[in-house]
User: Fold DNA-binding transcriptional regulator, MerR family from Salimicrobium album.
Amino acid sequence: MKVKEMAELSGVSVRTLHHYNDIGLLVPEEVTEAGYRIYSDKNLEVLQQILFFKELGLPLEKIKEIMHNPSFDRREALLMQRDTLYSKRERLDEVIRTIEKTIQELKGEIQMSNREKFTGFDFGHNPYEEEARERWGDQVVDESEEKVKKMTGYDQEKFNEIFRELALIRGVSPESEIAQEKIDIWYHYLNEVGNYSPHAFEGLGHMYVNDERFTENIDQFGEGLAEFMYNAMSVYAERKKN
Amino acid sequence: MKVKEMAELSGVSVRTLHHYNDIGLLVPEEVTEAGYRIYSDKNLEVLQQILFFKELGLPLEKIKEIMHNPSFDRREALLMQRDTLYSKRERLDEVIRTIEKTIQELKGEIQMSNREKFTGFDFGHNPYEEEARERWGDQVVDESEEKVKKMTGYDQEKFNEIFRELALIRGVSPESEIAQEKIDIWYHYLNEVGNYSPHAFEGLGHMYVNDERFTENIDQFGEGLAEFMYNAMSVYAERKKN
DNA sequence: TATAAAGTATCCCGTAGCGGTAGGGTCAAC
DNA sequence: GTTGACCCTACCGCTACGGGATACTTTATA
Assistant:
C-alpha cells in the first residue's frame, strides 16, 4: 500500500510517515522506481508497535533503539507495554482523584495541602522509559557481559586483539578498506559466538554509542573507538544488505 | 515563596516556571528589587489549573487564552476538566483493549482487521481542545453577538464609527498617541455596555486575533484591523495596570 | 488518448515547550 | 567576609513533526 492508505489506516499523517522514514524508524518495505514508498502489512504491524511505545511517551530515538535491538521480541514488548499502560492509567486515576478533591475543596467540604494539589502529575524522569530500558537495554548489556565472562582464554585474547587493532585505526574513514576489513573480522568473530544478521549487527553498533556502559568499556581501548565502530558497523551492515 | 519552593511543591521545573512567566501564562504575584520571583498561594492554584489543562493536551497558548478570558470561571473549569479527564481515561482504555487484543492475536486466539489495530490512538484533531473551545471561546463570541443584537440604533452607529476610525489609522504604531486615544474610546465604550478590567480588555483583544469569527468580523472594516487592535489594546491594558 | 485531478516526492523553514549552560548577582550563615 | 545555596537573564539546542513550494507520477474521466 502507498503512504495515504497507510496513513488512513493507522491515523497518523503522511508527513509523519515521511518523518519516520527519514529518521529510519519505519522504512517502507519497498520503493518504486518513481520513488514511491510501498508499505507492507509487516510495516503496519511495526507502526502499531511504534505507536504503543509512543503512547508511553518514549522518544522516537529510544523506540528506534529498542526495536533495532537484536534481542527485541514482539511478544515481550507487547506484554510490557500492556503493563506500562496500566500504570499510566493508574496515574491518570490519581489526577482524576486530585481534581475531584479540588472540586470538593472549592465547595468547602474538605481541605487539601499544597502538596496534595499536585499528586498525579508526571514530570521530569519518565518512569516508562526507565522500565523499557531495563527490559531491553540492560538485557543486551547483561548478555554481552555474560558472554565475556564465559570466554575462554583464547577468545579473550582474540577479542582484545580485534579491539586493539580497531583502536589503532580509529582515525581513518569508516568507509575505508582497512576499517571495513577489520569490521569484517569483528562481524565474523561475533557470528562464531552468537548469531548476528547485518541488521542486528547495526543495532549492536548503535548501542555502542547509545548505552554508556558499552561506550565506556569500548573506549578503554581508545577514546572515540565506540563511535568509530558504530560508524564502520553501519557502513558494513548497509553494504552487507545489498 | 520563591521559584524553588514553588517548583518542588508542584513538581514542575524552575525552568518551566521561568518559561510560563516569559510567555505570560503564570506571572508571579510579586517581584523583589533584585528581580526574584515571589509566588503566592493564588499563583499555586493557578498553576494547578494550568496543569489540569495541560493534562488534557491543550497548548499553552490556548490555556492562556482560556484563563485570560473575561468569563473564565474556576468552578466550571474544574468540572469540565474532570469530565474531559474521564474521556481521556476511556480513550486510554481503548488503547489497552487494543493491545490486549493484539496479544491474543499473536497467540492465534483471534483475528484483527487492520483498522482495529489502531483504535484508541489519538492524532491530529484534539477532542479536548474542541470541548474547551466550545466551553469558553464560543461563550465569549456568543455573548458578544448577543450584545451586538441588543444594541440600539445609537449604539450601532457609535460602534461602527469607532471601528471605522480605528481602521483608518491602523497603519500607525500601536503605541502612538493617536492609536491609544482611539483605543481609550473603545475601552470606555465597552465599559458602558459591560464591565471590563484592563486584564479582561487584553483578553478580549487576544481573542480578536485568535478566534477567526472575531477576526473576520473586525477585518471587514479593514484588513489587519483585528491585529492592530490587539496590539494597541495590549499596550493600553499594560499602561492602565500601572 | 489526451488532459485534468489526485497522489507523491523532496527540500526547507517554522513552531512548541522547555533543557541546559554560561555569566553574573544575592542572601543567609558561620 | 567569605562560602555555598539560590536567584537572575540571555541564548542556543532539541524533538516531532506541520505546512508550503515546486516538480514529477499515476489514475480517472472526457
Observations:
- The longest strand of chain B covers residues 30-31.
